[in-house]
């Protein structure tokens, strides 16, 4: 299991953020957060040892800032499950639905994962012109943790603090 991320809860036990392990340990060390759940592993140095946190809780309330998911190639591929949005096979390239060569922008709504075959075939055409229908309408994810949660699936104990029974599709749809 990957150990890179820790779920951070607000003082109210509501979901706040996802932090790196290093950042979470600093919060605990400085007395800003407490450990809620750990995984069965020790971390630290000779002077300072602790069980690796999986969930921490802030000891004071944080007013939650509005978060946006960074629009990156990696995140588009994660959103689309590395699945070509035209043929459903595995894909690792980005297609601009409305072609970039014709002014199509690099936005969540205009970029999809595509396999290289479909990407080449579609070329500088719209899906209509190329007669290539999208499997689903591309949307902007609601907030960043869903990308992180996807990347770091099944962390210990996270489920009860997240809407874990929802698929990423449902979360994406909420945004639209
Ligand atoms: Zn394809």
What does this entry show, briefly?
The chain is α+β, with helices and mostly antiparallel strands and 176 residues long. The protein has helices spanning 21-29, 73-79, 116-122, 127-130, 145-151, 168-175, and strands spanning 5-9, 15-20, 33-44, 49-58, 93-96, 111-114.
Write structural notes for this entry.
24% of the residues lie in helices and 23% in strands. The chain has 6 helices and 6 strands; from the N terminus they run E-E-H-E-E-H-E-E-H-H-H-H. It has helices at residues 21-29, 73-79, 116-122, 127-130, 145-151, 168-175; strands at 5-9, 15-20, 33-44, 49-58, 93-96, 111-114. The radius of gyration is 20 Å and the shape is elongated. Residues 163-176 have low confidence and may be disordered. It has 2 domains: 5-66 and 143-175, no CATH class; 73-130, DNA Binding (I), subunit A (Orthogonal Bundle). The chain has a 4-stranded mixed β-sheet, with helices on one face. The structure holds zinc ion. The site of zinc ion has 9 residues, from helix 3.
């Amino acid at each position: 299991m990957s150990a890179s991320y820790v779920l951070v809860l607000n003082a109210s036990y509501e979901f706040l953020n996802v932090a790196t392990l290093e950042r979470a340990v600093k919060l605990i060390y400085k007395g800003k957060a407490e450990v809620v759940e750990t995984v069965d592993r020790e971390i630290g140095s000779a002077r300072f040892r602790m069980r690796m946190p999986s969930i921490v809780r802030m000891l004071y309330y944080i007013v939650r800032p509005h978060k946006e998911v960074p629009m990156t190639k990696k995140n588009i591929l994660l959103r689309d499950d590395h699945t070509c949005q035209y043929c459903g096979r595995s894909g690792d390239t980005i297609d601009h639905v409305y072609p970039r060569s014709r002014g199509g922008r690099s936005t969540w709504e205009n970029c999809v994962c595509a396999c290289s075959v479909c990407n080449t075939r579609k070329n500088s055409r719209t899906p209509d012109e190329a007669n290539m229908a999208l499997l689903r309408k591309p949307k902007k994810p609601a907030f960043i943790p869903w990308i992180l949660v996807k990347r770091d699936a099944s962390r210990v104990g996270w489920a009860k603090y997240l809407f874990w029974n929802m698929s990423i599709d449902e979360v994406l749809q909420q945004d639209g």
